[in-house]
């Protein structure tokens, strides 16, 4: 099994992020607040899912945790020390696999190894990770020779190659078909059970959040205020793997969908009250 990394706690301390908006010549500089007052402590080894409407700042928050972006207020801390620049204690996984097409899967996974690792040890770690994600027999294939799910598994293995203390996943299964997605969720749970790193997971999928997370953070705006903040923190009951059909989760699911502005029957509440949205067939 993959050797267990030390999992680190992550803290968001009063995070704010405003982006400069395109300014007209001679006009005063303007900015748009995307995140405001985001404060949260994530325990070492905890899995936290971040839910919120498109454009509310989920990826921005994740990027700040990994040092890929800097906040304009507050700070992100990993294991008590502020994140300043790309942080080697984190590994990031994205919605698309982002593999190098001219390299084999094994060589792509090897890109995630920490610098200075002994060659033999690196090769062993890559082989172990490929086995772990079910790609042991596909190590020499190039990305174009494998399916989307296989490429995404290779991408996950690359993220794990560093033995990260914090794994940041931005809609990692978003581009996969429903069945592959469920399998990937189970795989992530297995990986976490074997080496419980801290995971921050951005997802649009409420069921995925309920299946994987210890806690779910709902990001969103508040009337009359700029930028999104944490609107709810939900502790998911029960231990993983959870029964996908449980009644307690169904109730929580409805509450979270409500928080996202979707009613129980799957319609966006805003749409229901708007007469300007065209009705199918257009
Ligand atoms: N580098 C940037 N410069 C200017 N604006 C940005 C930048 N990065 C993000 N934004 C803006 O910040 C807001 C939040 O973006 P972000 O990508 O974090 O949203 P998100 O919640 O991840 O959305 P989605 O669910 O669609 O991925 C968006 O309005 C986006 O336009
Ligand atoms: Mg995003």
User: How would you state the average pLDDT, rounded?
Assistant: 89
Strand order of the largest sheet: 6-7-8-3-9-10
Ions and ligands: adenosine-5'-triphosphate, magnesium ion
Low-pLDDT ranges:
274-279
The total beta strand count reads: 10
Describe the main β-sheet briefly: 6 strands, mixed
The portion of residues assigned to helices is: 25-40%
Description:
With 282 residues, this protein is of the alpha/beta class. 29% of the residues lie in helices and 24% in strands. The strands form two sheets. Strands 6-7-8-3-9-10 form a six-stranded mixed β-sheet, sandwiched between helices. The protein has a four-stranded antiparallel β-sheet with strand order 2-1-4-5. It starts with 9 loop residues before the first strand and ends in a 10-residue tail after the last helix. Bound molecules: adenosine-5'-triphosphate (ATP) and magnesium ion (MG). Residues 58-59, 170 line the site of magnesium ion.
Record the SSE blueprint.
Blueprint lengths: L9 E12 L8 E13 L4 E6 L5 H9 L6 E6 L2 E2 L7 E4 L11 H6 L8 H14 L15 H13 L5 E5 L7 H17 L3 E5 L3 H7 L2 E7 L6 E8 L11 H13 L9 H4 L10
Parallel strand pairs: 3-8, 3-9, 6-7, 7-8
Antiparallel strand pairs: 1-2, 1-4, 4-5, 9-10
Bound molecules: adenosine-5'-triphosphate (ATP) and magnesium ion.
The site of magnesium ion (MG) has 3 residues, from helix 1.
């Amino acid at each position: 099994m993959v050797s267990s990394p030390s999992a680190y706690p992550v803290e968001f301390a009063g995070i704010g992020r405003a982006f400069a908006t395109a300014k007209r010549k001679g006009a005063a500089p303007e900015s748009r607040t995307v995140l405001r007052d985001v404060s949260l402590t994530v325990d070492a080894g905890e899995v936290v899912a971040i839910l919120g409407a498109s454009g509310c700042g989920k990826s921005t928050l994740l990027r700040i945790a990994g040092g890929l972006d800097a906040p304009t207020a507050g700070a992100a801390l990993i294991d008590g020390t502020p994140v300043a620049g790309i942080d080697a204690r984190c590994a990031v996984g994205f919605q698309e696999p982002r593999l190098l097409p001219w390299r084999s899967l094994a060589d792509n996974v090897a890109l995630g190894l920490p610098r200075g690792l002994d060659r033999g040890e690196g090769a062993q770690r890559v082989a172990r990770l490929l086995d772990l994600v079910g790609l042991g027999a596909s190590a020499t294939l190039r990305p174009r020779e494998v399916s989307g799910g296989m490429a995404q598994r290779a991408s996950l293995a690359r993220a794990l190659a560093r033995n990260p203390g914090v794994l940041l996943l931005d809609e990692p299964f978003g581009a996969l078909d429903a069945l592959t997605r469920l399998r990937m969720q189970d795989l992530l749970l297995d990986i976490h059970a074997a080496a419980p790193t801290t995971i921050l997971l951005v997802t649009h999928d409420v069921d995925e959040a309920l299946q994987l997370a210890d806690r779910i953070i709902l990001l969103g705006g508040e009337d009359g205020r700029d930028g999104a903040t944490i609107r709810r923190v939900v502790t998911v009951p029960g231990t993983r793997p959870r029964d996908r059909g449980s009644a307690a989760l169904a109730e929580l699911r409805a509450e979270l969908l409500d928080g996202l502005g979707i009613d129980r029957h799957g319609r966006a509440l805003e749409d229901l009250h708007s007469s300007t949205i065209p009705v199918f067939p257009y």
